[in-house]
Amino acid sequence: MSKQSATQFLSVAARNTEVQENFKSVNNPEEFVQVAEELGYNFTTEELKDVVKEHSEGVTLRRKTGVWHWLRRVNWI
Questions:
Q1: Alpha-carbon distance 27 to 70, whole Å?
Q2: CA atoms of 55 and 13, how far apart (whole Å)
Q3: Which of 20, 31, 43, 47 could form a disulfide with 26 if both were Cys (CB 3.0 to 4.6 A apart)?
Q4: Which residues make Cβ contacts (< 8 Å) with residue 45, sequence separation at least 6?
Q5: What is the pLDDT of residues 32-52, one digit of tens each?
Q6: What is the maximum alpha-carbon separation in the chain?
């Protein structure tokens, strides 16, 4: 499990709607990680949270558009 895998996942998912579609029915962190693993990524929820936090440092205003807009449906991040 790694933050590198989480970073790679976010990079791919931000631009690939097919990847994003896999997460529409996900209801909890465990399911999210399981779907990501099925797609070939290996990270924990904490690693994903850390990566999102690192990439969000200094952000004071979140736009409704943006590369991670789909991730806003995930209320635990």
A1: 14
A2: 15
A3: 31
A4: 29, 30, 32, 33, 76
A5: 899 999 999 999 999 988 888
A6: 34
Angle at 52 between CA 59 and CA 33, to 5 degrees: 155
The answer to whether residues 67 and 15 touch, using CB atoms and an 8 Å cutoff, is yes
For residue 59, the model assigns a pLDDT of 59
Number of domains in the chain: 1
Tokens of 35: 């779907």
Tokens of 13: 């998912």
Domain extent, residue 9, equals 3-73
Model confidence pTM above 0.90: no
Amino acid code (one letter) for 52: V
